Amino acid sequence: MKTLKILVGLALIIAVSAFAIDKVGVHNTNVDGYGIGDVANDFELKNVDGAMVSLADYKDAKGYIVIFTCNHCPYSVAYEDRINALDNMFKTKGYPVIAINPNNPKLYPEDSFDNMKVRAKEKGFTFPYIFDDGQKIYPQYGAKKTPHVYVLEKTKTGNVVRYIGAIDNNYKDAAAANEKYVEDAVNALLEGNKVPLEVTKAIGCSIKA
Predict the structure, then answer these.
(1) Do 127 and 91 contact (CB within 8 A), yes or no?
(2) Which residues does the UniProt record annotate as the domain Thioredoxin (predicted)?
(3) Per DSSP, what are the bridge partners of residue 129?
(4) Residue 103 and residue 107: Cα distance in Å, rounded?
(5) What does CATH list as the number for 31-206?
């Protein structure tokens, strides 16, 4: 009986320790996706122009602004012009936008690949708009909403997650947004500084899988 109590106690200590490490985000490997400091896997997904896109294609990139977004969600629609602006602002500085539609078109036909092509043309997207066919990539990242942003920094050890969350603090009105989380994060990285706010709450529609 005494031996059993000792074993139970040891099991609890191990479980608590593992939870603590996970919460700190040290090489987070939990099922909820990446944490700050984790190395993100590359992917190869089809763009609206028919070409396959991966992060490795961007040889001169310093990092990436990966945004999970879609056609039908009003939050995503509200941010389309701002996503274009982020790409125009940072692509030439080494941080291009890569937009990924994670939704299952069987549930939301508006988010089909054909409709993605139409939307990209209508809005004049300057960035790749790629389809997460089979919904395999967004769970790796842990994306929950559209839009949901992951800023990655290219390093010798891989593409390290430096920011996760929302684009800014006002989806309704771009002019009223006074906290520009993604912009601040990328500017900090370009200056060689730590991202001032690493995680924010993504506001948007739930991903339809």
Answers:
(1) yes
(2) 34-191
(3) 99
(4) 8
(5) 3.40.30.10
